[in-house]
Prior knowledge:
This protein has helices spanning about 5, 10-20, 25-40, 50-65, 80-90, 95-105, 110-115, 120-135, 150-160, 175-180, 200-210, 245-255; strands spanning about 140-145, 165-170, 185-190, 215-220, 235-240. Helix 3 (about 25-40) packs across helix 4, helix 4 (about 50-65) packs across helix 7 (about 110-115) and helix 6 (about 95-105) crosses helix 8. It has a five-stranded parallel β-sheet, with helices on both faces. By secondary structure, it is of the alpha/beta class. The two termini are about 45 Å apart. Helix content is about 55%, strand content about 10%.
Amino acid sequence: xxxxxxxxxxxxxxxxxxxxxxxxxxxxxxxxxxxxxxxxxxxxxxxxxxxxxxxxxxxxxxxxxxxxxxxxxxxxxxxxxxxxxxxxxxxxxxxxxxxxxxxxxxxxxxxxxxxxxxxxxxxxxxxxxxxxxxxxxxxxxxxxxxxxxxxxxxxxxxxxxxxxxxxxxxxxxxxxxxxxxxxxxxxxxxxxxxxxxxxxxxxxxxxxxxxxxxxxxxxxxxxxxxxxxxxxxxxxxxxxxxxxxxxxxxxxxxxxxxxxxxx
Length: 263
């Protein structure tokens, strides 16, 4: 099998990676083209002691690190991919590489160390740095709608541990709407059944009538929202909940939120 045949199946994934790395399909494709031209011009220099996919990405990185074209700023709209691309484009280059190569491309830490010519420990540090940068981008004010004091305190601890601020803890629908209008949150965590038999669903509906905000429902009654008769929430956590589940939902909801997307 020729070198071209070995590399061909990996090219669509390299193009995807290049687009995420540069923040631009045009520039990403230009880097991929330059890498392929370098391989065609000097096939004897292509790494022969590693898997062809590793050699391809290694060649690409050699081209990318020596060129550094200006990335094209992305226009952020409501499309989830555009928001994700904009966030990734804001990361500093090395952490962005490490995160994308591990999370998007599925390379091991040792593979990434080879690709970007660094120690494995340094690669792990770069991934952590990238995640911290994303957390800083998505920092938000959070409104908690929950009438059980112990649960509310637990949720508040989770929110603050992630670096977010809590604007208020509301125990009724009326309180929730008032607090939301007084200090607009960037995220709402809502129970359904509230203290005075009011509804967290109604509270969220009234809040969303005033402004757009991502909502995560945390409830012991998920069947009230999963009826199939109306639009269902993107994020729904069932009580009793795992702290890791709440953390993951918060990070995911804010990562794709247009309000905090870089422009």
